[in-house]
Amino acid sequence: MEARTVDLTVTSVRKQDITLIARHGIEDISAPSGVLAAKPQSGTATCDLHLPGGRPVEIHLKLGRHKPLDWVARVTPS
Amino acid sequence: MRRRDFLRKGTVAAAGIAGSPKLLPPLTASESGPQKPFQISSQILGQTGVAREDNRSIDYLRRAQGDEFLPKLPVLAESYRPVDVQVSPMPLAERIKRNIVPRRGLCSIAPGKSIRESLLTGNGTMFVELMGDPYSEQVLFHHESLLVPWKRPFEAPKVAAILPQLRQMLLDGKYREGVDFAFRAMQDAGMPLNLFSHPTIPAFTMHLEFPKTAWLKDYLRTVDFESGEVKVVWNDEHGDWLRQTLASRPDDVVVQLLTAPRGQPVNARISLQNPSMMRMGDTAPISFEQDCSERMLIFACRFDPAVDNSGYAGVTRVIRMGGSARNEEGTLVIENASSVMLLTRIEWFADYSQDKVESLRLAVEHLNPDYDAMLERHRQGQAPVFNRVSVDFGGGSQHGMASEELLTDQRTRPDYSPALLEKMFEMGRYWFILSSGKYPPMVAEVNANINLQISGGPMGGLREGMESYFDWMESILPDCRNNAKNIFGARGAVFPILPDKGIGVSFHYASQVDGGIWPHPYWISAGGWCYRPFWDHYLVTGDLEFLRNRVVPGLKELALFYEDFLKLTDKDGNYVFVPSYSPENWPDNAEPLPLPRWPEPRFSFAEAHTVPPTPLVINATMDISVCREVLTHLIQASEILGTDADSVPKWRAMLEKMPPYLLDKDGTLKEWAWPTFEERLDHRHVSHLYGAWPGDEIDPDRTPQLAKAALLADRKRAPETLAAHGLCHRALVGARLKDYYLVDYELRQLFEQGYVGPTLTGTWKLGPWT
Fold first, then answer.
1. Which overall architecture, per CATH, does domain B86-147+199-367 show?
2. What's the CA gap between B617 and B615, in Å, rounded?
3. Per the CB 3.0–4.6 Å rule, which of B407, B409, B454, B489 could disulfide with B417?
4. ipTM (interface pTM)
5. Quick one: how far is CA B364 from the chain centroid?
6. Residues 19-78, chain A: which have Cβ within 8 Å of B?
7. B162/B269 Cα distance (integer angstroms)
8. Which of B44, B668, B699, B708 to probe by mutation at the A interface, max A CB count within 10 Å?
9. Residue numbers of B between 673 and 702 with CB closer than 8 Å to A
10. E strand or H helix that includes residue B86
11. What is the per-residue pLDDT across A16-40, written as a single tens digit (0 to 9) for each?
């Protein structure tokens, strides 16, 4: 994890659009042509992907340094 | 220094801890003079990514360690222990040199001392546990169907008539009276208090005795997760010994191969012994028969003929290369063989007969005893399933380290041992595969907690084992319909707390001195929890036929029950779940004035609970969550499939009437959505967090307020017992809520405080019941 890189292979049983969430933040992401809906802004936690059906997709992530629990601080006090 | 580099060096050092009779490397280093100080992980020093060396100077260490009043160097206590055979483990360097540790597997450097430290292999139908003792081996054989039989017909107590009165009692705050009233009705209906589930029993124990030598060295036992092969190796004055065990799925046989050093004989005494009776006592008469010849050992068992005609038999065929064999009062004595192979198959018979035992014997007789061929056939089936999902935390640099060494490594470092994490992940998959046959993985008492054991199945790509689970759940539906009818007067299905092999009857309610009062027949959420993996399977596979034919019919049974059960509403028009039970916990103030002794003396003193909890109350959060989930999934499935359009408005209307979850003053999610109940936090379960795990209605993105409330509830829990499933459950909830602190806290307890043994199997609980 110190290198903060993740190599991910995803095979979707059907063609679908998904949201990849990395709460540490996504500093950089690369994937085969047509998979990334749009290059996310560095540091954001989410990235929309177009997954083909039945075909492995290799995704390379460089994670950021956000704390996954940061969302708690932003919850409106109840 | 890069972390991987550290690990590589640390591996060799740490492996020496248990691989040879020396002390912890850091201790040795610091006490044996001014050597180069031991290096520590970058994790200790922050996130700089660069590990610094020990900052104590050589001069300082020389001064500190030169103190004339320091104690002598400690020595291993083991050297004082009287043992008849001194066992020295195979050093790490030798393991690496021989390439003896499976890439996907584990190794251990000492024989098991108890069954908890045994090695496992299995083919779904049968599995064995073996200690790996070179000279006095015990192998416990199991068959998945060996359950002390229930006498049928057998169904849930017919107590539906009391439901209106019971509800009124609970709504009036007479919780203890309500439980007492319900328990008496169940007894009157013929269902005894404290009736326990029937135990699963082992088939038999195989004892193998060999001539001992005074010492042995280079001991190692290994498990290959891809093939299921267990090996035990050692060296003594005769040379290198090898013992292999395999449970083949294609050949349906357990194979043991005993190989002597070149030019040396195998001399062995082999016997089969009765399994432990444990809880069965007088209630389950079982008769055993044995037969022993120089070519065959047969073990046959009849269960109580007053219950049914079931039984089982195990046949062990002996294939000896050279030497001689004789029967010595039921013990097979083998002398001067060059190798011995044992082929064992166990079968369970619903209708036992000698003819069936004979057929089994003939089938084993016809097996082709080619060990390598059987191993390869099994590997070809198991390896692809095992390898469908893998993780890589960088543990490759620790390859060769034994489980004992990895556990010590974990306990002496501030971060996580990457190889240990990988091995634990792999061991979970291996265990799931080896114990998935007709039934999903289950041993001994089966509890709805099996959901914890199989929850990773859909995402882990373990579809064969999950298919067993789905079949099993569907097979008990007729009993579950009777549960709904007999206990609640309702249509649909209610699943029991203790589903069993072929049994879905809700029978268990208990009042025990050391336990509590458990009104399990009124726990209505088991069904939704049991059907959650069905939904997960659909989500993972997108299999619309599975959704149509297997998910929706089950969910409809559950929804039908809710339709009949939810008849009361509060002043706001929301449903009132009554009776309602949050498993094994109770509101702190549900019964402010406990009776001196309860239940009333109608029950024996041993069954009385002097300060009884009153868990049968109103609006358990779990009941609401599970009902919401069942209805939500049904509506979603109907929309996906384009079916049941006429029922969707009804299910939507029911969802509208679900009571809201309640928060405590500090924002914690309450375990009961009933305003007068106070939380009881010292409990191992977190049933009210079902919506975070295994459910998914609570998450930080869609429901941030609820997610924060669930996170607070998870962190505030102070378990009253050291149950491993409680740690796992809270960690899983923490993971869903991205609470890395709690995940870390629970995982460390699991790995570092004795829950995990040297063969990476776990115990359900620490303490006197372990």
1. Distorted Sandwich (2.70)
2. 6
3. B409
4. 0.85
5. 31
6. 21, 23, 68-69, 71-72, 74-78
7. 62
8. B708
9. 700-701
10. strand B86-89
11. 999 999 999 999 999 999 999 999 9
